[in-house]
Every structure is written in C-alpha cells, then in structure tokens.
Amino acid sequence: MVTWRRVPTPLGELVVVAEDDWLTELHLPGDDGVVPVGAVEGGPTVDRAAAQLAEWFAGERKHFDLPLAPVGTAFQRRVWAALVAVPHGRTTTYGDIAAAIGQPAATRAVGAANGRNPIPLIIPCHRVIGSNGALVGYSGGGGVATKRYLLDVEQGVLTLDVP
Length: 163
Prior knowledge:
The chain has five helices and six strands; from the N terminus they run ββββααβααβα. It is an alpha/beta fold. The protein folds into two domains: 2-57; 74-155, Arc Repressor Mutant, subunit A, CATH 1.10.10. β2 and β3 form a beta hairpin. α3 packs across α4 (107-115). It is globular and about 45 Å long.
C-alpha cells in the first residue's frame, strides 16, 4: 500500500511517500504531482518520517532511522548509499563520492544521480559541494539557497533567510 503525509517545515510543506514499510519519496516545496494516485494519507512509515523531520529541523536529530527504498538505477543507488554515509554537519565533493563508490572518473554522473535523488534531505544530497568548496547545484525548490539553508540547519546556525 502506498501512503503519504504532508510535513510542515520552515522551508514550507514537504510531502513524504512510502510503499508498504519503505520510504520511497520526499518532495520539497514546489514539486508538482507529489501525491501518487490512490495513495492513502497517513501510515506508520510516513508518520515516523514526519516526526523525524520535525526533530531534524528543530536541531534535535542528526541521523534518520527510516527504511529507505529509493527507486533508481544500480549506479544511482550506490551514489545514494554513499550520500547516507556522509556525517551530519559535514560536506563532501562529487569527486569524493565518485571515489567512494569505486568510480573516480564518474564525477558528472554522481552529480546527475544527486539531481535525481528521490528522498532529498534524508538521503543528504545537500551535503555535496564542488571541488573548490562552492555550493553548486541543488535540484530542490529554491536551488542553492535551499542547500545553504539545510547546511546551516545542520551547523546550528539560526537564520531568518528561509528560501
């Protein structure tokens, strides 16, 4: 059974989607068509995700403890698994992720996989920066400003500049 739930956050309303007991999607504000046809509102996995997201935004949680089942190619899933290993409050580069999955020449492909991450924030693609330390690319609503905000939340920086 597919379930979903809206999650109020400082960024705006997120939508989480689960299939059976597995979280499959997280939609940031501005995404279109986020509730799958026939999905049921509420359920244990999406309710747990909503609670953990609220704790994360409040600075009370550093790690998500949720069963994840992102849909993607084998390469994309390897990239997303490497992203989950990046510690809270830290950043890494596209090149570092490519090396971590054993494909050091696949930097651009890592960037493309980041952009297709179906569970952003929980699979923390916002922690990936350019090799020069610059904040580059973020496919979520608000772009790089949202990425900066999410990194600031992890650093405990109080900001009123919500994208």
